[in-house]
Amino acid sequence: MQPKIQNMNYKKYHEISEFKYLGSLVSYNTDCGRDIQARITAGNLSYQALSKIMESSYIQIHKIKNIYFNN
C-alpha cells in the first residue's frame, strides 16, 4: 500500500499510521495495544540486561541495591 502524500504550503508530507512521541507510541486509530506491548518489551529487555549483573558474584550487594533502586 502506497502512503498518502499531503501537500501543505507547497511542501509534501507523508501520512503515517503511528509514531513515537515522548516515549509513547501514538497511532492513527488511537489504539494503545501496540504502545503497551512496546513498553512491556522494553521492560523485559532492561530486566534481561540487568539480571546478569544482579546475579554476578563479583559485584558487592550494596552496589546491586543501588542499581536496582535507581533504575
Keywords:
two-stranded antiparallel ribbon; two-stranded antiparallel sheet; 45% helix; 23% strand
Annotate the secondary structure layout.
Blueprint: E1 5-8, E2 11-14, E3 18-21, E4 24-27, H1 33-54, H2 61-70
Antiparallel strand pairs: 1-2, 3-4
Describe the protein.
This protein is an alpha+beta fold. It has one domain. The protein is about 45% helix and about 25% strand. The protein is built from 2 helices and 4 strands. It has a two-stranded antiparallel sheet with strand order 1-2. A two-stranded antiparallel sheet has the order 3-4. A hairpin with a 2-residue loop joins strand 3 and strand 4. It is elongated, with a radius of gyration of 20 Å. The chain starts with a strand and ends with a helix.
* Strand segment count: 4
Helix content: 40-55%
Note the main sheet: 2 strands, antiparallel
State the distance separating the first and last CA atoms. 41 Å
Q: Briefly note the structural class of the backbone.
A: alpha+beta
Q: What sort of overall outline do the alpha carbons produce when their principal axes are compared?
A: elongated
Annotation field: number of helices: 2
The largest sheet has its strands arranged as 1-2
- Uncertain spans, ≥5 residues at pLDDT below 50? none
> Which H/E pattern describes the elements?
EEEEHH
Strand content: 15-25%
Gyration radius from CA atoms, angstroms: 20 Å
User: Any idea how many domains?
Assistant: 1
Mean pLDDT: 77
